[in-house]
Amino acid sequence: MLSHLLIKNYALIDELELMPDRELNIITGETGAGKSIMLGAIGLLLGNRADTRVLYNPEQKCIIEGTFGVSGYAIERIFDEEELDYSNTCIVRREISVSGKSRAFVNDTPVNLETLRRVTSQMMDIHSQHDSVLLGSNEYQLEIVDTYAQNDPLLRTYRTDYQSYRAKKTAYDQLQAEASAMRKEFDYNNFLYEELTKAQLQPDEQETLEQELTILENAEEIKERLQLAYEYLDNTEQSVIDFLKGAVSNLSYISKLSDQYEQLQQRAQSSLIELRDLADEISTEQDQVEVDDVRAETIRERLNLLYQLQTKHQTKDVHGLIALRNELGQKVSKVLNLDDALGDAKAQVAAAYAQLQTSAEALSASRQAVLSPIESEIGGLLHDLGMPNASLKIQAEITKPMFTGVDTISFLFSANKGMKPQQLKNVASGGEFSRLMMAIKYILASKRSLPTIIFDEIDTGVSGEIAIKMGNMMRDMSHSHQIIAISHLHQIAGQGTAHYFVYKDHSSDKTVSRIKKLTLDERINEIAQMIGGKNPSASAIKNAGKSLNNAQQ
User: Fold this and answer.
1) What is the distance between the alpha carbons of residues 335 and 352, in angstroms, rounded to a whole number?
2) In Å, how far from its chain's centre is CA 32?
3) Distance (Å, rounded) from C-alpha 185 to C-alpha 181?
4) Which one of 24, 102, 293, 371 has the fewest CB atoms closer than 10 angstroms to its CB?
């Protein structure tokens, strides 16, 4: 339940604190005093959007904070799913900055509006005058049926299956579209793939072949220059090696005379060995160089093929061609295996649809089972609320699967004897809507572990004995739920276990809305004014006291 409410800097409210009673709280006040403003502030805790226009002082931020006792209401699962700290006391805060930026917190943890709505919707329900309009919509009527049937587990299962089916159906449809496009391109892609496969591409072959061709095209000159290089190093007449031999011999002689020349002799000897090795390698390279026009032509043809393929496919090298070949191979393979893939995807869709049908039937059966009890209970309550000839019929039709199930629910209503029930929006008046909504809220209250219910003038259009009965119903509901009721009717005001009065304070430069909890005498006076006007008569005051006494019994 809501144990403490703080509103700061919101609309006409400078600062307001409210600590509601555990049972039936009545809020009264003149039209425009700020009752709806307070309700709008509470709506921010439920995730409604706001902007800087709500700021009483545009230079300060707005703070709305609600403290809820949630022990025994089985909502810990939601906190776990949203990764929020859970305790028996939950503090929800909403802040609107001067710039208009909104922030929300649950137990001091920042949350987005979606999470805020999910959490607070399990703590508080507001019936506004807008709900009477909603009552005429099939979607809202379906929610009523699901709430009465306590279908949350079945609905979660159905929605999980529905989302699974939609995902698999989307994947199958996408695969079909891709298959159609790929089949159109298959012949061309397959031709290109076979062309590249036939080329037997090797990663580094282009560089290797280009080097080999350069050697073959210059074989005679290379062979001649290798021969000259060899002869400079080593020939029978005069060569570098012969001269170096002489240097080694002389250094060997003098190194015997003194050790200081031994290092020079060793270096000369090493150089001689290195030059002999170099001469041998040059000779070997010369022997391997051959003039082979046939091989050169073969390489030219291979390189021409590689160059043509690179130009055709706009790639820089053979690596690009190989990557393209692999990509085309995957496309070709995918088309060749399309039938298997489509068959598998279709089977998954069929299995998901079968599962969806199973959960849809379970959900639909649960809904069908409560239609008659809802009609009966609401009919009895409407009779008690002064509509003895009213009747409610709930029509259910099976449709294609949607996010809410396969059922379309329509509430058909007749307030008069002998009149065929019709769509609510076509036949119900304001007072009839109020009584019908009260009956619905009453029967749903026992189906939900909802801590706090707020009624915003649900008594619109009713009076007299009917108002007394509506007050009795609220009082009855308050034994298991905290009720906060905004009302203009003294019959309902007298039923409260606590009574709050909203008024405008004009004592400062700027009008502000304030709220105060009334004492017993103040309650009697306020209810008397609701009965007889601003200056109530003695009889009005007596009746006010009597109505309070009767309510306390």
Assistant:
1) 25
2) 39
3) 7
4) 293
Question: Residue 434: which of 454, 455, 465 has the closest Cα?
Answer: 455
Q: Which CATH superfamily is domain 1-123+455-517 in?
A: P-loop containing nucleotide triphosphate hydrolases (3.40.50.300)
Nearest alpha-carbon partner for 288 in 215, 217, 236, 232 = 215
CB 376 within 8 A of CB 421: no
C-alpha 190 chain-centroid distance: 42
Distance CA 127, CA 456 (A): 6
Q: Which two tokens stand for residue 318?
A: 């053979």
Q: Whole-model pTM above 0.90?
A: no
Residue 312 CB-half CA count within 13 A: 12
Residue 250: count other Cβ atoms within 10 Å of its Cβ. Answer: 14
Q: Which residue has the higher pLDDT, 494 or 337?
A: 494
Q: Which residues pair with 91 in a beta bridge?
A: 67
C-alpha–C-alpha distance, residues 110 and 116, integer Å: 9
The C-alpha atoms of residue 444 and residue 518 are separated, in whole angstroms, by: 30
* Contact (Cβ atoms closer than 8 angstroms) between residue 486 and residue 42: no
DSSP characters for 79-138?
HHHTT----SEEEEEEEE-TTS-EEEEETTEEE-HHHHHHHHTTTEEEE-HHHHHHTTSH
pLDDT score recorded for residue 547: 79
Q: Is the pLDDT of residue 394 over 90?
A: yes
List Cβ neighbours of 449 (8 Å cut-off, separation of 6 or more): 72, 73, 74, 75
Q: Show me where the domains of the chain are located.
A: 1-123+455-517, 181-337, 519-552
pLDDT at position 25 is 93
